[in-house]
Amino acid sequence: MSITYHLKFRKNLEQKQELTQLINKYKNNILLVSNLYSTKHGYEGGKFQDEYLDIDLENSSQISFDLLQKDADPQYWKKMLKEIIHKITTDIYPKEDYFFDFQGDIVYEMRENGVIKKNNIDKLM
After folding, report:
1. Against a cut of 0.90, is the pTM above it?
2. pLDDT at 3 over 70
3. Does residue 120 contact residue 33 with C-beta atoms inside 8 Å?
4. Spatial distance between the Cα atoms of 122 and 25, rounded to a whole number of angstroms
5. Cα(96)–Cα(113) distance, rounded to whole angstroms?
6. How far apart are CA 10 and CA 22, in angstroms?
7. Alpha helices, DSSP H only, in 1-125?
8. Dihedral angle at the C-alpha atoms of 32, 74, 21, 7, nearest 10 degrees?
9. What is the DSSP letter of 29?
């Protein structure tokens, strides 16, 4: 079973050149970052704080992050993952609402109506 994180956007977005450059910069044998892809039947049902979300993300975009080496140093790859997520959500798509989750089960962070909310119960690091 793979370990996969997702960055899900509320809208269908186009892949910007800056995202392609970022993905290429972070190519490695520990964490595989997908291109931006569209989903017709997107959904966010992960747990945020003590509540399960029920959000339809129909016709939206997302990026997947697959951990390729499960025995890799967790501090290293989690720091790298957080860095990539921050660059995508702050520099490349700074105004887009999103959900950052683990396998659709836990939502670590989200931006709704421009406001960033972090899960204080379940944390990535």
Report:
1. yes
2. yes
3. no
4. 29
5. 8
6. 21
7. 17-25, 74-87
8. 70
9. S
